[in-house]
Each structure stands twice: as C-alpha cells, then as structure tokens.
Design a protein that fits this description.
Blueprint: E1 4-5, E2 21-27, H1 34-42, E3 50-56, H2 62-66, E4 74-78, H3 83-93, E5 98-101, E6 107-108, H4 112-122, E7 128-137, E8 140-144, H5 157-163, E9 172-174, H6 175-180, H7 192-202, E10 207-219, H8 221-242, H9 250-278, H10 283-292, H11 298-309, H12 311-324
Helix pairs in contact: 5-7, 5-9, 7-8, 8-9, 9-10, 9-12, 10-11, 11-12
Length: 336
C-alpha cells in the first residue's frame, strides 16, 4: 500500500479513473545524456500517454542521440529561449490529462507513472502530483529529497509555497490548469518551477505526494556552484512577482516578506562568495555589503569582514572547500 500525503479530501469526493500522462523532457546541449531519460520514460510499468522532447536550440547532435527512439516519441525543436520556453512549447503540444516533467539529465524509476496514477485516481481533486526522489551528486547518492528537515507541506499549502518550493521538481500538473494560468513565466530563467507553482496553488490548486523515492535527480557540483547566485536571483525575482498576486492575506504577505528577505540575504552571500572565488574586482564590495547588511548573523558578518580585509586568503579557503565538499550547492527543491 503506497503512502500518499495531501490536504484532506473534500467531503463526498469519489475516486476517479487513472489519467494519462504526457512526459515532457526539455533539453539543451543534452545529446550525451538525454537517451537515458527517454528510456526511463518509455519503460514505465504504466506506459506514458506520450513522450515529448523539446530541444531548446541545442548545437549538439541531439537528433542523432534520439534516433533510436524517434518512432516512440515526439521531437520538437525551437530557438533557444530557456527552460520555461521549452516546457511551455512541449505542454502546448501535449494531449495527456497531466503533463509530467523530466529533466534531460535525470531519470524515473520504473513505477513512477503508475504511482502517480494511483494518487490521481484516489484524489481526483489534486492538480499537482509528485514523488520523493534520490538526490545524486556526481554519481553518488546523497539522500532522499524529503529528508533532513525538509517536508512536503500538507496543512497550509498557500503559506507553504510562499515560504519555499516544497514540491519536488519532476511534478505532474493537470494540463488544463497549467495552460489556464499561462504556463511558465519565460522571463524567469531560474526558479521557474516555483513561480508557476505559486500561481497554481494561490489560484486554488492543491498538491499531493507519493512518499516513495521514484526518480533520480542528478546534481553536478561544478555547474551548480557556478549557478548558485543566479538561482537565488531567480528566487528573489519569483517572490517579488508573487507579492503582486491578488487575494493574499496579511499573514501570507508576512510569510512572503520573510521568505524574500531570507533569499535576498542568500543571494548577497552567493554573489560575495562567487566574486571571492573568481578573484573579481567586486569581491571586497560584495563582502562589505554582507558585513554591513541587515539580518546576517555574527559569524557571517565576521567572515565577510575578514574577506574585506584579506580577499586573497578568503579565496584560497573557499576554493579548497569547493573541492572538498558539495560546495554548499542548493539541493532540490531549492534547485529549480
């Protein structure tokens, strides 16, 4: 018996039929890895309604990589416009009841669609479905997504989604609802999933979780370390946009304001860290902004001040830590 987590069902709700799932795979410069993702989608115990790969203007030979699957997938090509643009293009071409996303460098476990279908049938009032996942860093399994203090929010999903993105990124979304809210905001290059989920949940959608690790989310320390500040910039952009949504209560605005301030501080720290590691001319200025900024703890201020005094020593220390650890990479669901 699978364990489902979701807000309480509305009174009188009856079970429904299993929906069809369109698996959407946005891909950019992914010729060397996309085949494994496609294979994992096509070999599900519950076959997908369709698999759509949308190439976002790659210059590698992704068409050649997909040649063994061409009879079983839909392959779309478009000019480069970013992840949100590729997802929107694929979603508009889809015809399943739900669209379910899969990054080109990740994979599904064989029973993932079957588990999502069971949840959807048991709870036809849910518009957003996901599962737990194994997080891997450079081929090494770190942990499950929902672990170490991070939880799937059940009680108040409106406040929960304004505080953080508690929905693992390979989410299935009811296609008609996704299109009704306008899909993904193509001006947001990072945190695009979170921004869309905020609009969905504030607009009345509810989310459910199959509490099993049924996907592999693969991280690469080098690429994520270099993107850390851009990820936080996307989170700040997302929350600033959310503040303009109609219908938020005073309490929800308070949650959003705290989340925004928290992510602004993390953005400032990420910028300072990257400037120090790269040896950029901005290193001292960004470190000073953290040392004098509001909301930072004493240890953070002290480290930032030390970086102002001796940025070269701080750079050597940070570079060594980047090699020895995960580099403080953002783990899902914060990685959007």
């Amino acid at each position: 018996m699978r364990r489902f987590l979701a807000p309480p069902a509305r009174e009188g709700l009856e079970a429904g039929n299993r929906p069809g799932f369109s698996v959407l795979i946005p891909a950019y410069q992914a010729a060397d890895i996309v085949g494994e993702a496609v294979e994992s989608a096509l070999t599900q115990t519950l076959p997908p309604h369709e698999v759509i790969v949308c190439d976002d203007g790659s210059t590698d030979d992704i068409a050649g990589a997909l040649e063994p699957f061409r009879a079983r997938i839909t392959f779309l090509r478009k000019d480069n416009g970013g992840e949100a643009s590729a997802k929107n293009t694929a979603a508009r071409a889809a015809s399943g009841d739900f669209v379910v996303f899969l990054d080109a460098d990740d994979t599904y476990m064989p029973e993932r669609l079957e588990a999502l279908a069971e949840l959807a049938a048991a709870r036809p009032d849910l518009d957003i479905l996901t599962t737990d996942a194994h997080l891997e860093l450079d081929g090494r399994t770190l942990r499950r997504c929902y672990a170490e203090g991070f939880r799937f929010v059940v009680d108040d999903q409106r406040r929960g989604i304004l505080n953080d993105n508690f929905i693992f990124g390979h989410a299935a979304v009811r296609r008609e609802r996704l299109l009704a809210v306008g899909g993904f905001d193509e001006s947001i290059l990072y945190a695009t999933d979170w921004e869309c989920l905020i609009r969905l949940i504030i607009g009345g959608s509810r989310a459910g979780l199959v509490d099993e690790p049924l996907a592999r989310y693969r991280l690469r320390s080098g690429s994520l370390s270099s993107q850390r500040s851009r990820m936080f910039a996307g989170r700040v952009q997302t929350l600033e946009k959310a503040a303009r949504l109609p219908g938020l209560s005073a309490g929800e605005h308070d949650v959003l304001a705290r989340s925004l301030a928290h992510n602004q501080r993390r953005f400032a720290m990420a910028e300072a860290r990257e400037a120090l590691v790269s040896g950029g001319a901005e290193a001292r200025r960004r470190a000073l902004a953290v040392a004098l900024g509001r909301g930072f703890g004493p240890r953070t201020r002290a480290k930032a001040l030390a970086s102002v005094i001796s940025p070269r020593a701080a750079r050597r220390l940070l570079s060594g830590r980047e090699r020895e650890t995960t580099g403080g990479v953002l783990l899902p669901p914060a990685v959007d």
